[in-house]
Amino acid sequence: MRKTIITAAITGAIHIPSQTEYLPITPDEIADEAIRACAAGAAVAHIHVRNPENGKPSADIELFAQICEKVKKNCDIILCLTTGGDPTTMTLEQRLKPVTSLKPELASFNGGSFNFALHPLAEKIKEYRFDWEKAYILGTENNIHVNTFQSMRMYAEAFNEAGTKPEFEVYDMGQINNIRYLVDSGQVKGPVYIQFVLGILGGMQATVENLVHLVDMAEKTLGRDNFIWSVVGAGKQQMLLGAAALAMGGNVRVGLEDSIWLSKGVKAKSNAEQVEKIVRIAKELSKEIATPDEAREILGIAARSKGE
Predict the structure, then answer these.
(1) Phi, psi (rounded to 5 degrees) for 213
(2) Number of H helices and number of E strands within the chain?
(3) Which residue from 107, 104, 106 is spatially nearest to 84, judged by alpha carbons?
(4) Cα gap 14→118, rounded to integer Å
């Protein structure tokens, strides 16, 4: 059996500082969290950036560059940069800037358009630390994350040019068929790497039944040997779906982007705490944890010179 790849999604663009005091905000905090996650057993760090003054999600390429530079100097973790951006305010060129400018080994590639909503969170937060937070959350009630076939073609061209491996983010069943089209049309080379993201309002619910169904449909649509998969369980389902994925032979993503909790009622103080927990679960299931270099081999990421 392949070794298990653990990904740590360090800060994301979903949670806001008012939800947890442990959310990393500055480039140094985000980089340090990635380095600690690597030491705890993560082979991949999924990177978003935030305004260091107020924690608002940002797409500033200089912030990405600062984080990448510090992480690469201190550990060998694979950096997976987000290209999600904000489709309502950013051009495709801006969303792709982390790939075209920094040429990471791995980057996110959304598998299709879908509603991406966070607005119910507003009812649960009594006090906000920053003025932008409430409007940001409520605004997602009218949010469509736009990823058309034209934009996916442009993404594929940029990824191929940069030598960056796509990590396909799949939120719903039809997006598997979209990936099949990209492979069949020669835009993307297999085997593909899929991150099933469950628990986002607008996508599939975070249940074991849905995960089993997604994996089954991916095998039927793409072929058993033509994809590698991992799972995100948003919120309180993070560890439950992670354990299910481990039992099914898949890979797992944890991190403060996806859940602020370590266990019921207990906030995670760091990404490393969540990585350590899923590593313990994996070892109880007799799973071996992949190092960054082993993950590169599993994912088919071409070897690069040190520091590149």
Answers:
(1) -65, -40
(2) 11, 14
(3) 107
(4) 7
CB 211 within 8 A of CB 244: yes
**SS3 of residue 221 by DSSP:** helix
Regions in the chain scoring below 50 on pLDDT: none
For residue 50, the SS3 value is strand
3-class secondary structure for 153-196?
HHHHHHHHHHCCEEEEEECCCHHHHHHHHHHHCCCCCCCEEEEE
Tokens of 28: 């140094």
Burial class (CB in 10 A: 0-12, 13-18, 19+), 103: middle
Greatest pairwise CA separation for the chain in angstroms: 50
Tell me the H-state helices in the chain: 27-40, 61-74, 92-95, 97-102, 132-139, 149-162, 174-184, 208-222, 238-248, 271-284, 292-299
Global pTM value = 0.96
Q: Could you read off the pLDDT of 112-134 as tens digits, one per residue?
A: 999 999 999 999 999 999 999 99
Cα–Cα dist 86/94, whole Å: 9
> Which residue type is seen at 189?
K
